[in-house]
Amino acid sequence: MGELVYEPPRDGPTLWEIGIPDRSAREFYIPDPNPKYINKLYVNHPDRFRQYGLWERYSELYPDGDLVYTVGESNYSKDWFFAQVTRKKDGNMYKATTWQIKFKLDDNNQSGTYKLRLAVASAAQVELQVRINNPEQNPAVFTSGLIGKDNAIARHGIHGLYWLFNVELASTLLVIGDNTIYLTQANATTPLQGLMYDYIRLEAP
């Protein structure tokens, strides 16, 4: 067949990136398991994600609010939870989660379009919504619609069916100085509805 060369899509210079584009969430923060569920086969094992019930740790680690990641300060291996799952409420009720990516722009090309690349390593009955600088923005800048049936989170995996979303962001949505991207997993009726990101990149015009 000869040599096959893959060139990933790119429209402009990289402003920032989160993760490693390897179709896996392995590089992100994977917590220690609840001692009640610990599997000794995976203690001190590189496949930490094989432990049972890790999705429940999200609400324990973020009891008062959802994950906030600051570009240039946060470290994705410590500060980016490996799966964006629902938040448990009282009883058997669950609520949507909204993660924030905070970043600064030194300038803003008002005539151009920014590109947000969202590579998803796994999705299970999720609706991913993107908003810019306004968590109540309606409609959202982007919605994936309801996607995913691979259940990698429930099956203690670290990747499933790969998805790539290329989201165009009008420059008028961004400002010089502080900006925030809001990533909402809006479908929230069970504990196992969630997604694992592979890689996120923002490109300038």
Task: Sum up the structure in keywords.
205 residues, mainly beta, Jelly Rolls, 9-stranded mixed beta sheet, 2 helices, 11 strands, 4% helix
In short:
With 205 residues, the protein is mainly beta. It has two helices and eleven strands.
Query: What are the low-pLDDT stretches, counting only 5+ consecutive residues below 50?
Result: none
The CATH superfamily is Galactose-binding domain-like
Helix content: under 10%
Mean pLDDT: 91
Main beta-sheet strand count, sense and barrel state? 9 strands, mixed
Within the CATH hierarchy, at the fold level, what is the topology?
Jelly Rolls
Beta strand count = 11
Number of helices: 2
Number of domains: 1
| Element string (H = helix, E = strand) | EHEHEEEEEEEEE
3D shape: globular
CATH class: Mainly Beta
Intertermini distance: 36 Å
Task: Return Rg in Å.
Answer: 17 Å
For this entry, what is the oligomeric state of its chains? single chain
Task: Give me the secondary-structure category.
Answer: mainly beta
Provide the CATH architecture: Sandwich
% residues in beta strands = 35-45%
Pfam family, one: CBM-like
InterPro entries: Galactose-bd-like_sf, Polysacch_Lyase_4, RG-lyase_III
Domain Rhamnogalacturonan lyase: 14-202
Protein name: Rhamnogalacturonan lyase domain-containing protein
Description:
The protein has 205 residues and is mainly beta. It has one domain: Galactose-binding domain-like (Jelly Rolls, Sandwich). The protein is built from two helices and eleven strands, in the order E-H-E-H-E-E-E-E-E-E-E-E-E. The protein has helices at 57-61, 76-79; strands at residues 14-19, 68-70, 84-85, 87-88, 94-95, 97-105, 113-132, 142-149, 163-170, 177-185, 194-203. The strands form two sheets. Strands 1, 2, 3, 6, 7, 8, 9, 10 and 11 form a nine-stranded mixed beta sheet that branches. The longest helix is centred in the N-terminal third of the chain and has 5 residues, at 57-61. It is globular. It starts with 13 loop residues before the first strand and ends with a strand. The mean pLDDT is 91.
